[in-house]
Amino acid sequence: MSQYQPLHRLEETTDRPAPETWPPLYMPAMPPLGAIRALEAWWQARRRRRHLRQNLRRLLACDDATLEDIGYRRGDIHRALRLPRTQDALDALHRVEARHRQEETPS
């Protein structure tokens, strides 16, 4: 009998749980950071577009003179609100506003 023999007997007598098996679908503790950032960016853009559309609807309550002072026209606001939700209505309004300014400026 060697000096290691008692240790082998000790291992045999201890009750160990069966080795763990992975479930069929492994779920890591934390999803990939790239996916989290993409989801946050999507959510922030969605919130921004929603907030902007709410403010544009409030502008429709103003009279035409007030809208003209701001630099918008009622029809442009309606067109911006009819854009798909994936498009930025404020960018569309800025493009139209720039086009109106060019038309008004004498060449």
Explained architecture:
This protein is mainly alpha-helical. The protein has one domain. The chain has helices at residues 5-13, 33-59, 64-70, 74-82, 89-104. α4 (74-82) packs antiparallel against α5 (89-104). The longest helix is centred in the middle third of the chain and has 27 residues, at 33-59. The termini are far apart.
Can you lay out the helices and strands and say which pair or pack?
Blueprint: H1 5-13, H2 33-59, H3 64-70, H4 74-82, H5 89-104
List key phrases describing it.
single chain, mainly alpha, 107 residues, 5 helices
Quick structural summary:
This protein has 107 residues and is mostly helical.
Helix content: 55-70%
Question: Which term fits the overall shape?
Answer: rod-shaped
Q: Give the uncertain stretches in residue-range form.
A: none
How much is the radius of gyration in Å?
33 Å
Please provide the ordered H/E string of secondary-structure elements.
HHHHH
Number of discrete helical segments:
5
Roughly what fraction of the amino acids lie in strands? Answer: under 5%
SS content category: mainly alpha
